[in-house]
Design brief:
heterodimer, A: two-stranded antiparallel sheet, B: 252 residues, Rossmann fold, six-stranded mixed sheet, ABC_transp_permease (chain A)
């Protein structure tokens, strides 16, 4: 189906189902119950899942396939956001031109940075991309203020021209009149499910991005990218020029980052320089590695996992901890809360760091490898392990 | 006029004269061995041929065109494939994928943006790849990770990757270096088979006299960066200059 193999079609269908049913799947707890704080099925968070999913899928095309570790992809995310907000300011609140321009701007920007950075490989490439991104970040704060509105961040004012705005158009971001923030709430007994326009818009773009990434993975072009990672030396002695291959992968992943940035602005028409900061670049690296670099579904999983944990862990504060440990004796409770509080709220990055370390040490292939190991263990228990299958380690899916 | 013509090539590394006025002519369809003791300049010469090093003076013509100043991938696209001393393969990819890559390189050139085609749908290319694997007796290993192969199999795979490009000239850099006698003999058999079944020109840089005399039709002896003699194996065997250069090094 769709020009992809059976197994890939299955993966695509599973991801499509998860994405489309997310408002239900992610809200397993009744709205008023104590567990409701672990629900993730509200539009704002789900949008983050899929937008950062797009960012990570694109990053994986560069890092997962070619092995070039960019530490500056947030620059393209930021550029995409600025481009989208400019479209809102100049044309109208329609998201289509905004998203299109954000892809184009980020792609052009990545041609420039990629062309220079790809003259080096390994750690030098990483440092170059990091330097470019930090440079963009600082420029956005200083000399580029007319374009970026400096510290305030770029936003839409009522005095902006919006040349294409029609009479009755909404004054929030919309898709041909369909407001992004519009949502339908379905109440089933104690459960409440939110279906938001913005989320479905992002989810469909994520599915298209995911499909394109499958096609790239299975194409001769994708094979060459994996060859770049495996043995660049052999590649050049096989008559292939690795530079344009790596550059194209860089541009594609830059365009993905731009799309993600454009969507962030489309959900909330604001763009600030902090989107370009190195922490944002580092986050997408974590997502990709945590999920499983070089695998199809890994980056999506990693993005969802990190964004979910960020949301849940940073919501928990000392009061919540006190209520959890209330049953314990006083001294013990205070001690436990003191220890646990370092890992939640503001300190959730500590938890992220620990999880990242555990994954890298015990599951170098990320969450996907964890899933594969569980799958293999189950199969072995059922005694269906075909001989030779484990020896013939299959290429990453 | 040979397919490969090296004329007056000099290469210095600082004060070291690695190559001095090297002239070499490899005739189409022959197996030409370049031998010499350690430090004779064999590897330097090879690196000049594949574009890794640029000689200080002299010319290298392949198939009527100069190879000087071209990048390794461009020289490969001209028709020169190279087998390395330690097999260079794509260890993270499957055996089949390893041979698919040179197939694509031959058909599509140094770069092509074929991101929306599917490798699985490339019928002819897949057939070609399967065929070459069958030719080197590796068809049953097609789905293995190339990195997990034995050293001998890695060598066969690398050979297959070069052959599937149908090069006009195959360069072999000490193809049996560090191999056990049995593996060496296997490699010799494989090369003999290639020579018999394909119209291919080979240039072998080799240390092992056994390999050289089993395969070569012409031999050039290098010593201290200069070609001493070039002749048939029979004449080389008894040549006094060669004995001198190799004194005590090998049972010529």
């Amino acid at each position: 189906m769709l020009g992809i193999g059976k197994r890939d079609t299955t993966i695509l269908l599973v991801v499509a189902f998860m994405a489309l049913a997310a408002p239900i799947i992610l809200n397993p707890f009744p709205a008023n119950s104590a567990m409701a704080q672990f629900n993730a099925g509200y539009p704002d968070l789900m949008q983050r899942f899929v937008i950062f999913g797009i960012f990570a899928i694109g990053f994986n095309i560069l890092f997962g396939l070619t092995g070039y570790l960019s530490f500056g992809h947030a620059a393209f995310l930021g550029a995409g956001s600025y481009a989208a907000v400019w479209m809102f300011k100049l044309l109208s609140f329609n998201v289509i031109p905004a998203v299109l321009l954000s892809i184009v701007v980020a792609a052009l920007f990545s041609v420039l940075i990629g062309f220079i950075s790809l003259r080096r490989s390994g750690i030098y490439f990483s440092i170059l991309t990091l330097a470019f991104a930090q440079m963009s970040y600082n420029l956005a704060y200083s000399v580029l203020t007319p374009l970026t509105n400096g510290e305030t961040g770029l936003q839409v004012y009522t005095s902006d021209p919006q040349y294409l705005r029609g009479e009755g158009d909404p004054i929030v971001t919309h898709l041909f009149g369909l407001e992004m923030r519009a949502k339908e709430t379905l109440e089933l007994g104690p459960w409440a499910f939110d279906f938001s326009v913005g989320y479905y818009f992002c989810a469909i773009l994520m599915l298209i991005s995911f499909y394109i990434s499958i096609r790239i993975f299975r194409s001769p072009f994708g094979l060459m990218l994996r060859a770049v990672k495996s043995n660049n030396h052999r590649l050049s002695y096989t008559g292939l020029n690795s530079r344009p291959y790596a550059l194209t992968a860089f541009i594609i992943s830059g365009a993905y980052a731009g799309l993600a940035g454009g969507l962030l602005a489309a959900m909330d028409p604001l763009a600030g320089a902090e989107r370009m900061q190195w922490t944002a670049s580092g986050e997408v690296v974590l997502m990709t590695i945590l999920g499983g670099a070089g695998t199809l579904i890994g980056p999506v999983l990693g993005a969802g996992f990190i964004k979910y944990c960020e949301n849940i862990f940073s919501k928990i504060n000392e009061n919540v901890l006190h209520s959890w440990f209330a049953a314990l004796p006083d001294g013990l409770e205070t001690g436990l809360v003191w220890v646990a509080s370092k890992f939640v709220g503001e300190g959730w990055h500590l938890t992220l760091g620990l999880m990242f370390m555990l994954v890298v040490i015990f599951l170098p292939g990320g969450l996907v490898e964890g899933g594969q190991r569980i799958g293999r263990a189950l199969r072995r228990r059922r005694g269906q392990d075909e001989p030779g299958r484990s020896a013939a380690k299959e290429p990453a899916e | 006029m040979g397919i490969l013509e090296v004329k007056g090539v000099n290469k210095n590394f600082g004060g070291l004269k690695a190559l001095q006025d090297v002239n070499l002519s490899v005739q189409e369809g022959t197996v030409h061995a370049i031998i010499g003791p350690n430090g004779a300049g064999k590897s330097t010469l090879l690196n000049v041929l594949v574009g890794k090093l640029r000689p200080d003076t002299g010319s290298v013509m392949f198939d009527g065109k100069s190879v000087l100043g071209r990048k390794p991938h461009e020289i490969n696209q001209m028709g020169i494939s190279r087998v390395f001393q330690t097999p260079e393969i794509f260890t993270d990819l499957s055996v089949l994928e390893n041979v698919l890559i040179p197939c694509f390189a031959r058909r599509d050139g140094a770069f092509r943006m074929h991101a929306f085609e599917s490798v699985a749908h490339e019928g002819t290319i897949n057939e070609e790849a399967e065929q070459i694997l069958a030719d080197v007796n590796m068809a049953d290993k097609r789905n293995l990770h190339a990195g997990s192969l034995s050293r001998g199999d890695k060598r066969r795979l690398e050979m297959a990757m070069c052959l599937v490009q149908q090069p006009k000239l195959l360069l072999l850099d000490e193809p049996t270096a560090g191999m056990a006698r049995a593996d060496t003999n296997n490699t010799i058999d494989l090369l003999k088979e290639i020579k018999e079944t394909r119209p291919i020109t080979m240039a072998i840089i080799e240390h092992d006299m056994h390999v050289v005399f089993s395969l070569a039709e012409r031999i050039t002896v290098l010593a201290q960066g200069t070609p001493l003699v070039e002749d048939t194996p029979e004449n080389i065997k008894g040549h006094p200059k060669v004995r001198e250069a190799y004194l005590g090094e090998a049972q010529v």
